[in-house]
Specification:
The structure is a homodimer. With about 400 residues, chain A is an alpha/beta fold. Chain A has helices at about 15-30, 45-55, 65-85, 120-125, 150-165, 195-205, 215-220, 275-285, 315-320, 325, 355-365, 390-400, and strands spanning about 5-10, 35-40, 90-95, 100-105, 115, 130-135, 135-140, 145, 170-175, 195, 225-230, 240, 255, 260-270, 290-295, 300-310, 330-335, 340-345, 370-375, 380-385. In chain A, a hairpin with a 7-residue loop joins β11 and β12 (about 240).
């Protein structure tokens, strides 16, 4: 007997038939003798619908009131699922964020969890009930309702698993695990049985969006055993843990991210502190800069090249052009036809030749490497967007065979 | 400057245009310098829609989970209305039942209010915000969400008005006040400027459903000044108070109730205690009996005639037939083509001839009176259903002129 937290996303509970399937998974877990806590998102497109509705009342609604409105979606989900479980003769009780004592800061619409009460959930589990908790929501110190932002229900589930010292936190999604590459794009992409928290974080930041990074970071911090699995197929998914149990392949996965733009500041003075000035301006506005390259230009100038996320592109451009005199550069070149291709693997550091094999794979397919960046468990290259899929397939073939 | 509680029902906030109108009323009250607390119902048919949805998940959902689900409707209403007010530059904050400390018993789906916190509302009013409170909902001692049953938002508003010692509690509806008779049926029906709590209670029980009796009873107990008025027309409504300010007409109104059925137990033994037995059986199942008549029959037997509400008809019939031997009656006659016509007026007791005038009006139109019942402020007669409208008009003409 174990304490298991299960999280189902909006598409998994979109309608009565899907909730019936989810309730079946919950019922089986409960009948096996486990304590079961379930975290649900709002049904299907409910949240988007409520946001659209809000804008009819106020084109720019206050985040406090928006959170008040949006939190009803998850509350409806858990009540309906509790009814479905009762119809299957599984005792169940639904609880809101405030009812379980999900305390957050006051950053409405994107709040951070501060603490989770375990008392109410424990009492319900002791009464042999399945506990259904509305995800995505909490309350701040004023007892006002907050939401955790997109992907917040994953974070709710991990926070509850940490507070309850759960044996396992299962995140049910519409994919059946974490793959060595996007299975829709790369032939022979393989499902991973296990992956480390760090690898998972690098995969996410490299463009493979299975779990929200916030939830993985929290799982890592509190050492919560995660499992990513499908709500449609009854089979084991991918375990995400602190350390791998067995010997694993050196490389865990290959990913592609097209949501990047390359900026080049041409003709910057070759003086100390110039790069600092540039990145300070962007960091002040919370714009993340990824791959960075400094290269010598003509006449004692240099070029500074870096990538930013596509969503930050317009703001970054405006900020830099506004400060052109202060920074001192001749020209800003922007290229948004680039893609970042990465390999991720916790074993990479100890294994020589991984990066070389990657470059070899790209060369054999005549893919030009524009920029390179490495971290402890990741190697990323920037390539032309049109070469990206070919690059991923070539690298995958190299590391995972055919 | 006054503290005013305003309540708007579901049809008054059914869509964005209607909420805009309601927000206009609220904004004007606020701009006149008043502290304003607003209680809202769920929008339009939201509650019915959620009940229907629940039945897809469980044909017989638990009331605890149903309350969890239904309470989201009012939460959405208040959040949306707060957004609308903000768009009109009126500072507003929405609050749920639990946020204002609306404590109830645990009778899910039909809970009774035990206490209302004033602290949070006071704090928001002191910050010069309009306070929008989700009606119809509270929490019990387990911190579980309860609802107050149909008409519950009126009761929420009165309870808040009592707790806050409000100067006035305005109940906005789709009629513009309380009338001397149903204005859709009776020509020259007049709107009343004032009416007493007792008259209002008798009018409601006599079939004129403007305010739910629970809310009027609570207003009477805590001496809350009520006003019933229209959310569509900006004009004074009907004040409901403990005592009338000025001399008023003796009779306040004429009503018709067709939701009654007449039961006759024929051939009951003419012994003490028989009537008690009959009414005990019905009272045990919370079936209210209204007009009662005992009349002598043949051979030392009597007939007992009484009316019950239409909704209780089938159950009352079954209960009585099951106990036929124990009660001892020959036959049960049921007549559901009857109507109860009543006059209500606090001044009636002190004025002779009121009942006589009523009977005179009926006789002049050849309406046969089947049964009569009187209370301190009401005279009701049972007539054939087909004569009911004619009876109401005749009585109204008699008392309110033409």
């Amino acid at each position: 007997m174990a304490l298991i937290v299960q999280k189902f996303g909006g598409s998994s509970v979109a309608d009565v038939e899907k909730v019936r399937r989810v309730a079946g998974i919950i019922a089986d877990t409960y009948r096996e003798g486990n304590d079961v806590v379930v975290v649900l998102s709002a049904q299907g497109k409910t949240t988007d619908g409520l946001i659209k509705l809000a804008k009819e009342y106020n084109p720019n609604p206050s985040k406090r009131e928006l959170d008040m409105l949006l939190s009803t979606g998850e509350q409806q989900s858990v009540a309906l699922c509790a009814m479905m479980l009762a119809a299957m003769r599984i005792p169940a009780v639904s609880l809101t964020g405030w009812q379980i004592g999900m305390r957050t800061n006051s950053n409405y619409s994107n709040a951070t969890i501060k603490s989770v009460g375990s008392e109410r959930i424990r009492r319900e589990l002791d009464a042999h009930r399945v506990v259904l908790v509305a995800g995505f929501q909490g309350i701040n110190k004023y007892d006002d309702i907050t939401t955790l932002g997109r992907g917040g229900s994953d974070t709710s589930a991990v926070a509850i698993a940490a507070a309850m010292h759960a044996d396992l936190c299962q995140i049910y999604t519409d994919v059946d695990g974490v793959y060595t590459a996007d299975p829709n794009k790369v032939k022979n992409a393989k499902k991973l049985d296990e992956i480390t928290f760090d690898e998972m974080l690098e995969l996410a930041s490299a463009g493979a969006k299975v779990l929200h990074n916030r939830s993985v970071e929290m799982a890592k911090r509190y050492d919560v055993n995660l499992e990513v699995l499908s709500s449609y197929e009854r089979k084991p998914g991918t375990k995400v843990r602190g350390a791998k149990k067995m010997e694993q392949a050196v490389v865990s996965g290959v990913t592609k991210d097209v949501n990047v733009i390359r900026f080049t500041l041409v003709g910057v003075a070759d003086e100390p502190g110039v790069a600092f000035k540039v990145f300070r301006i962007l960091a002040n506005e919370k714009i993340n800069v990824d791959i960075i390259l400094q290269s010598l230009g003509r006449n004692n100038t240099q070029d500074i090249t870096f990538t930013v996320g596509r969503a930050d592109g317009d703001q970054a451009k405006e900020l830099l052009l506004n400060e052109q005199d202060k920074i001192g550069f001749k020209r800003l070149d922007i290229d948004d036809h680039v893609a970042k291709v990465s390999i991720v693997g916790a074993g990479m550091l100890m294994t020589s030749g991984v990066a070389v094999n990657m470059f070899d794979a790209l060369a054999s397919k005549k893919v030009n490497i524009e920029m390179i960046s490495t971290s402890e468990i990741k190697v990323s290259v920037l390539v032309d967007e049109k070469d990206a899929d070919k690059a991923v397939q070539a690298i995958h073939d190299k590391f995972f065979g055919d």
